Amino acid sequence: MPSPNLILCGFAGIITLAVISANSIRNSEHKEIEQLLPEPNIVEASVKIDSLNAEAPSPEIITGKIHYSFITTLIKAGLEQHEITTLISRIENKFDIINQAKKGDKFSIMKDINSDNESYISAFYYQGREKHFFFISQDGDTVYDEYGDSLDNTQYKPPLTQQYRISSGFNMERFHPVTHRITPHLGTDFAVPTGTKVLSIADGIVIKSRYNRFAGHYVNVRHNNNVVSRYLHLSKRKVKVGDRITQGQAIGLSGNSGRTTGAHLHIEVWVNDSPVDYLTFMKQQNTQINTPILLAAQKHKSRLIAALEGSAQRLEQ
User: What single Pfam family name could you report for this chain, choosing any that match (predicted)?
Assistant: First the structure.
């Protein structure tokens, strides 16, 4: 059986790395920033097994009780390495398995089969002295809590702690105030004083942190679902390439660097390699309610709790 320490070391190295490539800076008379070409996200993260409906591929529930550590209990439960890796990646930012998992805590796991006939963890419930935690995943990728809210922080938040006047919006045919040419304005400008904290709109990985003569000091952050946010014309950058950051973390200070006419924050959002209107994106993302996920989450959580109580029943197809 693998050593728990080796397993944990392996998990620390499995955190996804994204290799980013970008185009060179475009003609300075026509484009004030370089075009970003994101690559797809790469996402990696005593026992009783209740066999369910055998007539067709059906979910399976595994329950466990921690005697030594969470990791070793997962191994004894018979989870495969890729399943353990995925589980850890799902919960590592929400649940401290080293300090919060205690002897005597219990958990239940629902395993399912995807369209490629591969097993994946479709639901997880942890019942502990210091922590109760649940997630559901219907596609083996995006995970949600019991209320149907994404745990991947796709509920984006503004980059500023208070409201500021919008000095220039998303406009594919804007008259540029410096070049006096019609040039696409791919972001939204907020008139904020120099030195204002600029916050990441969601969890992510810093893929660029540099300076150029058009964007000034700028930071690009890759989020889930192939979304990238860009923060331009900063006076100071507080993160470097490769940093894993959380929603609301300060990534820099606003400023007046690069080609500008005054201090402001220019923020862009790119989805699937294409720029979108930041204001429209925020409104759409934060008003969607995933009712099917909400109902499925409540149903699965009840079944996982029942399994822990020793009264698991056959799951309906």
Answer: Peptidase_M23
* Beta-sheet strands, E only, within 28-150: 36-37, 48-50, 60-65, 106-113, 119-127, 132-136
Do 276 and 298 lie in one domain? The reply is no
Distance of alpha carbon 115 from alpha carbon 113, whole angstroms: 7
* Type and span of the H or E element at 270: strand 265-271
Residue type, 179: T
Q: Are residues 281 and 178 in the same domain?
A: yes
pLDDT number for residue 285: 73
Same structural domain for residues 279 and 187? yes
Give Cα separations from 264 to 99, 231, 237 (angstroms): 42, 10, 15
- Residues 307/50, Cβ–Cβ less than 8 Å: yes
Give me the amino acid identity at 40.
P
The identity of residue 25, as a single letter, is I
Domain of 123, in residue numbers: 43-148+290-308
Q: What is the pLDDT of residues 179-221, one digit of tens each?
A: 677 788 899 999 999 999 999 999 999 999 999 999 999 999 9
pTM over 0.70: no
**Rounded-to-integer distance, Cα 220 and Cα 240, Å:** 10
Question: Looking at residue 264, what DSSP letter applies?
Answer: B
Q: What helix, strand, coil percent values describe the chain, rounded to 5?
A: 15, 30, 50
166 burial type by CB count under 10 A (0-12 exposed, 13-18 middle, 19+ buried): middle
User: Is 66 within 8 Å of 119 (Cβ atoms)?
Assistant: no
Span 251-287, pLDDT tens digits: 999 999 998 889 999 999 999 999 999 998 888 776 5
Task: Provide the token pair at 9.
Answer: 């070391």
Torsion angles phi and psi, residue 87, rounded to 5? -60, -45
